[in-house]
Amino acid sequence: MYFETRELSKEFGGLTAVKEVDFAIEKGKINAIIGPNGAGKSTFFNLITGLHRPSSGEVFFKDQEISHLSSNKIAELGIARTFQTTNLFERATVFDNVIVGHRLRTKTNLLDAILRTKRCKQEEEQCKEKAWEVLQATGLTHVATKIVTNISQEEKKRVAIALALATDPEVLFLDEPTAGINPDETNGLAGLITELAQMGITICLIEHKMKMIMQMADKIMVLNYGEKIAEGAPEEINKNEEVIRAYLGG
Ligand code: ADP
Ligand code: MG
């Protein structure tokens, strides 16, 4: 068992956003979560990455129960994520966005930064190297010095992924990585995500674009009203009656 949730639930007041979800994320694979709006997909990610505490249930990563840990601690274990809405510093360069994102995630404390100790300087060099490395991995070196406002929507999505990669994650959670971009750009991003998986990063993504998911995912979980209604390989999901009903609202 690599990464799994056990009867994971989250209630907001009277609303059960996630209900007793058992899901195993397979190592080195592209794991996908689909489901209508409001199905609890983002909440599921928030529970796994420590932004929300579960109402009940557990999250296990490599035999450790992690749902009580802070999001920083969870990140240190090698779990990174992107958010449904990308929050970048629009007036800074792509490179600086990655640097700042990386600093916010590394452990140099404020006093260190102010005193500019040797350790901090060393870390600064490492920080820059890391930034170039992740810009390369995400195909962004040619826009590194551009101001974020001036890059394309797809490139912004790539920057968000670059930020997450700066922590050297083992597992990467992507919340609707292709939302709001055109089909060509979607293909580019799908290619990037597939490459990351080939590099050995375990991927778990939330996605609405069914065609893309059916082509790239190894495994799919379908959520509806907070509950897992189906799980399996794309070909199984494709012909699942309950899934078809949930999507068509019939
Ligand atoms: P999805 O990502 O599948 O569209 P969400 O996980 O964002 O769905 O939301 C699932 C349900 O939980 C929705 O009904 C939403 O309104 C509710 N919800 C999500 N976050 C909160 C919150 N912080 N407080 C109250 N309700 C929330
Ligand atoms: Mg969502």
UniProtKB/TrEMBL annotation:
Occurrences of domain ABC transporter (ranges): 3-250
Keyword field contains Nucleotide-binding: yes
Keyword Nucleotide-binding: yes
Keyword annotations: ATP-binding, Nucleotide-binding, Transport
Top-level taxonomic group: Bacteria
Pfam families: ABC_tran, BCA_ABC_TP_C
GO MF, any single term: ATP binding
Name of this chain's protein: ABC transporter ATP-binding protein
The organism of origin for this protein: Virgibacillus kapii
